[in-house]
Design the sequence.
C-alpha cells in the first residue's frame, strides 16, 4: 500500500513531505481562530490531520525505500550547523504515523463530544488549539534539532493546557488540573532546556546527529552527564514516568473527553519517543552512566509504575481515573522495555507504545460515548450499559481485553514480546512482575466490565442509547485494529523492530 | 479432500455452526437442526483426518504468522486426534442431550448457549490440532473465554460468583504461570515453540533447577488440569447447566488441560529431560495427593454434581501422573484415561442432569429408591461408575492397568498403591448412589413424585445410555487405540498393549 502512495504522490509532496507534515496543521490553526462556526473548523481540522496522515505515510515509504534509512530535510536550505534539520528515520516515522492516525480518527470523532461539552463561541478556538497541539506533537517527533524539539514541546504543551482547561464547562476541577499540569509541564520543559544547555556547552552544536557524533569523546565530561540527568528528568516528567506522573490522572479525568482521548494516545507517547531518541541515538546505551541509569533508575521506576499505579487503578471508582492510572502503568511497561537496553527490549517497548495508543484510544473513545449519552463516568454509571449500548460497549470490551493482554489481541502480542526480551536477559523476576501487573489489570478492568455486562442499569428508564455513528466508526476502527494486530502483528512489530534498529543507529535495519 | 482442507474445515465448521445458530435463533427446531448437522459433518471430518493420521501421515496447516517466529500452525498427531475425536464425537451426544435438558428445564437464552458451545468446541479442536505452544495457548484462552458465558448462564448471584472464580482462576494461572513458561521455553529453545517428537528442549543444555522451575510453571499454569491447589474453579463451575458440566467440565475444558500437560511432557520435555528433572517427582506427588484428597472430599459431598466435580479432579490427576511417569506405559495410560474418563464421567453428569430435570433433586440422600422410577438412568450411572472405578469390562480398566504397569516399571511403587487406594475410594463414593437407588433398603420412604409429569425427557435418558455403551466398546477397542497412539507415546506400547490383552 505504501508503494502505491509513493507512486501516486506528486514530486513536491515527496521532496517536502517532512516540513509540510507539520506546517499544514500549524498554519491552518490561526486560520481556524477566524472561522465563524465550529462545524467548519471541525471539517478543516479533519482535512489538516488527514493531510498530515498522508504525509506520514509518504515519509514512512521514503524511509523504508531509502538506502540509508534516513530522510533529512534542511529547513530553508540552511546547512546543518546553522539551520534546523528535520530528520526522519524508522523510529520517528513510526511515531509520526501513530500521532497522525490517532489525530485523524480523533478529529473525525470529536464533533458530537465538542457540541456537548464546549460552549458554542469557543468551538472554533478549541479546534484551533487542537491543531496547534497536533502540529507541536508532530514537530517534536520530526525535528533533528535539540532546541527546536524544545520549541515544539512547548507549542504542544501550552496548547494542551488550554485544551485541558476547556473541560471546566463540564467540571470546574479541570481548572486546577490544567494549572497543575502547567506547573509540572513547565518544570519538565525547563529541566530539558537546562540539559540541552549543558550539552551545548560541551559540544557547541544543537543538531542531535552532530551531538551524537561528538559525544563519544566527551562521555566522561561532567557537563554531559549533568545534561543527561536533566534531560532524563525533564522528558520523564512529560512522559509521565513514575513518580513524575502526578499531573496525569487529574488532567485526564477532567479535560473534555475528546482531549483525554487524543492526549492519552499521543502526548505521553511523543515525550517517550523524545526520551528514547536521547537515550539511544544522542547518547549511547554503552556509556557507563547510561548503563547505570538504565539499571538503577529506569528499570526500578518502570516496574514501580507497573505495580503501584495498577494498584491505584484498582481502587478508583471513576472509569476515567482507572484508565489514567492504567496509562501510567502502561508507560511503565514501555520504560521497562527500554531499560533492558537491547534491541529486543526497545522494540518490545515501542511495540507496546503502538498497541497502547490503539487500546487507550479506543477505551477513551468509548468513555466519551458514555459521557455523551449518560453524563457520568463512575463505574456505577456504567452499570447495565452492555444492554443499552451494545456496540459501544463491545468495542470497549475488546480494547479492555487488549489492555489486559488476552490472547488474540494486540496487547497480548506486546506483552509476549516484552516477556521474550526480559527472559532473554535472564530477568525472569521482572516477567513475574509484568504478569502480576497484568493480573491487577484483570481486576480493575474486570470491575468495569462486570458492571457493564452483568449489573442492572442504575436508571432503567434510560433504555437503548447508542453513541452516535460518528463516534462509533473511529471507535470500531481502533477496536478491530486491536483484534487484527493481535492475530497478525507483523506490520506494527516490523515497524517497532525497524524503529529499534534505527534508534541504535544500525543502518541496515531491513 | 486433501488433509489440509480438512484441517481448515475442522476449524471453520464450528464457527460456521455458531453463525448458523445465531441466524436461526428465531426457530428452536431449525437452530437445533443446524447444531446436529454441523456436529455430524464435523465428526465425519475428524474421522477422515484420523484415518489420514492412522495411515502415518502428519498433515500440517500454517495459517500464517502472528508475529515473526510465532505462527498459528496446526499439525496432527495421534494423541491430538484422540482428543479431537472425543470432543467432537461427544458433542453430538451432548447436543442431543442438551435439547432435552434445556427445553425440559425451560432455560432462557438458549441461542447464546448453543453459540458459546460451538465456539468452545472450536477452541478445543484448536488445542487438539495445534503445532506449537503459541497456537495451543491462544486456543486454550479461546476455550476459557467462550465457556465463561456458559458457566454464568443462569445469571443469578451464585452463577456470577462461580463464573468470576472460574475466569479469575483459569486466566490467572494461564497468564501468571503458563505464559511466562511459554516465554521461557521460547528463549531456552532458541526462539522456537514447535512441538517436536522427542522433545523440543531435548537437545538443549538446561540445568536441573531451570527445568524444574519450568515444569512447575507448566504443571500449575495449566489450571484446566485442576491439580491441587488450582482445582477450586471446577466445583465452582458446577453452577453451569448440566450439559455444560457434562461436555465441558468432564470432556472439553478439563481434557484440554490434561492434554496440554501430556503434550508438554511428550513434545516439549521428552523422556530424557523429564527423567532428569527433579521436579518431575514433585509433580507426581502432587498428582497423587490430588487423587486421594479429591476422592476424600468427594465422599463428604451430598450434592451429586459437587461429588462428581471432586471425582473429576481426582481422575484428571491420573493423566498428569501418567505424563510425569515419562515412559511409554505411563503416557499410554494417561492418553487412554483422556478417552475413558470422558465417556464415563459424561455418563454420570448426564444422569445427574436427567434426574434434575425429572425430579428437581440435587442431593444424593434424596435419591434412595429413585432407581425404581428411573431404571435406565441409574443403570447408565452404574456402568459409568464402574468404568470410573476401573472394573473390567469397562473403559476405565485399561488406563489404570497401564499406569500401574508404568509405575512399577519406573520404580514409583507408591503410585500403584495410590491408584489402588483411589479405586477403593471411588467404590466408596460412587457405587452407593446407583445401588441405593436401584435396591433401596427395606423401609425407605417412597421418593417424591416427578416434578415434571412425564419424567425425564427422552433425549436425556438415551444420551447417557449411548455413552454408557461407549464405555463398554472402548474396553474392547483398546488394542487398535493403543496401536494408533504408539507413534506418539512410544514404541514399546505395542508390546505392552498386546501383552496386556486378555
Sequence:
Amino acid at each position: 500500500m505504501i508503494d502505491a502512495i509513493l507512486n501516486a504522490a506528486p514530486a513536491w509532496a515527496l521532496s517536502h513531505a517532512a516540513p509540510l507534515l507539520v506546517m499544514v496543521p500549524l498554519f491552518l490553526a490561526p486560520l481556524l481562530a477566524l472561522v465563524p462556526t465550529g462545524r467548519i473548523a471541525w471539517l478543516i481540522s479533519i482535512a489538516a490531520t488527514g493531510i498530515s496522515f498522508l504525509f506520514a505515510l509518504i515519509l514512512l515509504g521514503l524511509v523504508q525505500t531509502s538506502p540509508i534509512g534516513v530522510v533529512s530535510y534542511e529547513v530553508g536550505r540552511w546547512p546543518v550547523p546553522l539551520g534546523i534539520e528535520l530528520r526522519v528515520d524508522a523510529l520517528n516515522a513510526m511515531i509520526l504515523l501513530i500521532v497522525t492516525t490517532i489525530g485523524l480518527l480523533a478529529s473525525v470523532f470529536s464533533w458530537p463530544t465538542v457540541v456537548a461539552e464546549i460552549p458554542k463561541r469557543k468551538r472554533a478556538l478549541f479546534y484551533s488549539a487542537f491543531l496547534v497541539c497536533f502540529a507541536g506533537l508532530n514537530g517534536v517527533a520530526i525535528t533533528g534539532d535539540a532546541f527546536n524539539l524544545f520549541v515544539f514541546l512547548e507549542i504542544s504543551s501550552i496548547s494542551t493546557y488550554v485544551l485541558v482547561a476547556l473541560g471546566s464547562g463540564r467540571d470546574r476541577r479541570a481548572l486546577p488540573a490544567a494549572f497543575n499540569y502547567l506547573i509540572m509541564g513547565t518544570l519538565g520543559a525547563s529541566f530539558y532546556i537546562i540539559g540541552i544547555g549543558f550539552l551545548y556547552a560541551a559540544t557547541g552544536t544543537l543538531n542531535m546527529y552532530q551531538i551524537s557524533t561528538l559525544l563519544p569523546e566527551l562521555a566522561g565530561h561532567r557537563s554531559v552527564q549533568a545534561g543527561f540527568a536533566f534531560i532524563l528528568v525533564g522528558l520523564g516528567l512529560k512522559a509521565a514516568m513514575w513518580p513524575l506522573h502526578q499531573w496525569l490522572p487529574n488532567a485526564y479525568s477532567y479535560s473534555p473527553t475528546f482531549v483525554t482521548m487524543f492526549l492519552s494516545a499521543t502526548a505521553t507517547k511523543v515525550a517517550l519517543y523524545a526520551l528514547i531518541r536521547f537515550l539511544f541515538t544522542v547518547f549511547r546505551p554503552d556509556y557507563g552512566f547510561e548503563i547505570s541509569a538504565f539499571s538503577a533508575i529506569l528499570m526500578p521506576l518502570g516496574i514501580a509504575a507497573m505495580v503501584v499505579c495498577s494498584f491505584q487503578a484498582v481502587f478508583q471508582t471513576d472509569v476515567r481515573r482507572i484508565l489514567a492510572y492504567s496509562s501510567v502503568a502502561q508507560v511503565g511497561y514501555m520504560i521497562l522495555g527500554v531499560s533492558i537496553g537491547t534491541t529486543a527490549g526497545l522494540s518490545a517497548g515501542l511495540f507496546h507504545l503502538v498497541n497502547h495508543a490503539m487500546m487507550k484510544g479506543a477505551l477513551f473513545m468509548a468513555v466519551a460515548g458514555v459521557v455523551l449519552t449518560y453524563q457520568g463516568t463512575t463505574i456505577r454509571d456504567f452499570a447495565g450499559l452492555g444492554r443499552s449500548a451494545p456496540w459501544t460497549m463491545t468495542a470497549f470490551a475488546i480494547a479492555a481485553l487488549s489492555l489486559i493482554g488476552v490472547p488474540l489481541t494486540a496487547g497480548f502480542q506486546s506483552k509476549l514480546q516484552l516477556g521474550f526480551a526480559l527472559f532473554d536477559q535472564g530477568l525472569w523476576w521482572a516477567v513475574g512482575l509484568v504478569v502480576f501487573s497484568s493480573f491487577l489489570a484483570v481486576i480493575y478492568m474486570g470491575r468495569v466490565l462486570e458492571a457493564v455486562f452483568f449489573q442492572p442499569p442504575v436508571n432503567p428508564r434510560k433504555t437503548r442509547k447508542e453513541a452516535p455513528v460518528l463516534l462509533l466508526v473511529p471507535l470500531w476502527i481502533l477496536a478491530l485494529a486491536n483484534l487484527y494486530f493481535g492475530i497478525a502483528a507483523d506490520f506494527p512489530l516490523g515497524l517497532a523492530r525497524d524503529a529499534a534498529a534505527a534508534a541504535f543507529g544500525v543502518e541496515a535495519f531491513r | 479432500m486433501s488433509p489440509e482442507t480438512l484441517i481448515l474445515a475442522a476449524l471453520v465448521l464450528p464457527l460456521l455452526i455458531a453463525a448458523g445458530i445465531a441466524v436461526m435463533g428465531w426457530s428452536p427446531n431449525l437452530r437445533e437442526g443446524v447444531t446436529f448437522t454441523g456436529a455430524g459433518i464435523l465428526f465425519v471430518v475428524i474421522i477422515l483426518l484420523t484415518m489420514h493420521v492412522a495411515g502415518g501421515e502428519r498433515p500440517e496447516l500454517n495459517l500464517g504468522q502472528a508475529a515473526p517466529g510465532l505462527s498459528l500452525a496446526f499439525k496432527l498427531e495421534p494423541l491430538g486426534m484422540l482428543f479431537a475425536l472425543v470432543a467432537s464425537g461427544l458433542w453430538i451426544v451432548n447436543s442431543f442431550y442438551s435439547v432435552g435438558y434445556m427445553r425440559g428445564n425451560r432455560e432462557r437464552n438458549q441461542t447464546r448457549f448453543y453459540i458459546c458451545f460451538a465456539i468452545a468446541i472450536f477452541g478445543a479442536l484448536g488445542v487438539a490440532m495445534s503445532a506449537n505452544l503459541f497456537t495451543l495457548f491462544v486456543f486454550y484462552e479461546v476455550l476459557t473465554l467462550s465457556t465463561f458465558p456458559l458457566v454464568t448462564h443462569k445469571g443469578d448471584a451464585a452463577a456470577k460468583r462461580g463464573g468470576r472464580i472460574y475466569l479469575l482462576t483459569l486466566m490467572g494461572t494461564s497468564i501468571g504461570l503458563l505464559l511466562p513458561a511459554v516465554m521461557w521455553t521460547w528463549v531456552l529453545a532458541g526462539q522456537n515453540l514447535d512441538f517436536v517428537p522427542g522433545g523440543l528442549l531435548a537437545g538443549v543444555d538446561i540445568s536441573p533447577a531451570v527445568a524444574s522451575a519450568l515444569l512447575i510453571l507448566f504443571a500449575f499454569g495449566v489450571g484446566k488440569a485442576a491439580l491441587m491447589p488450582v482445582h477450586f474453579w471446577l466445583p465452582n463451575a458446577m453452577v453451569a447447566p448440566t450439559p455444560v458440566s457434562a461436555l465441558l467440565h468432564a470432556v472439553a475444558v478439563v481434557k484440554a488441560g490434561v492434554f496440554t500437560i501430556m503434550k508438554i511432557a511428550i513434545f516439549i520435555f521428552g523422556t530424557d529431560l523429564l527423567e532428569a528433572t527433579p521436579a518431575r517427582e514433585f509433580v507426581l506427588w502432587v498428582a497423587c495427593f490430588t487423587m486421594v484428597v479429591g476422592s476424600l472430599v468427594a465422599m463428604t459431598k451430598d450434592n451429586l454434581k459437587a461429588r462428581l466435580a471432586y471425582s473429576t479432579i481426582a481422575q484428571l490427576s491420573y493423566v498428569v501422573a501418567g505424563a510425569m511417569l515419562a515412559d511409554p506405559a505411563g503416557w499410554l495410560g494417561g492418553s487412554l484415561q483422556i478417552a475413558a474418563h470422558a465417556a464415563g464421567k459424561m455418563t454420570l453428569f448426564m444422569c445427574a442432569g436427567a434426574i434434575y430435570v425429572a425430579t428437581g433433586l440435587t442431593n444424593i440422600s434424596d435419591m434412595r429408591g429413585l432407581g425404581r422410577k428411573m431404571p435406565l438412568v441409574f443403570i447408565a450411572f452404574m456402568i459409568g461408575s464402574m468404568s470410573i472405578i476401573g472394573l473390567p469390562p469397562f473403559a476405565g480398566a485399561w488406563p489404570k492397568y497401564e499406569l500401574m504397569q508404568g509405575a512399577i516399571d519406573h520404580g514409583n511403587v507408591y503410585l500403584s498403591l495410590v491408584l489402588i487406594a483411589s479405586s477403593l475410594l471411588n467404590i466408596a463414593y460412587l457405587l452407593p448412589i446407583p445401588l441405593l437407588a436401584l435396591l433401596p433398603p427395606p423401609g425407605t420412604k417412597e421418593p417424591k413424585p416427578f416434578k415434571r409429569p412425564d419424567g425425564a425427557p427422552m433425549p436425556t435418558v438415551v444420551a447417557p445410555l449411548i455413552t454408557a455403551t461407549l464405555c463398554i466398546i472402548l474396553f474392547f477397542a483398546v488394542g487398535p487405540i493403543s496401536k494408533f497412539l504408539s507413534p506418539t507415546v512410544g514404541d514399546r506400547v505395542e508390546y505392552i498393549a498386546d501383552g496386556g490383552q486378555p
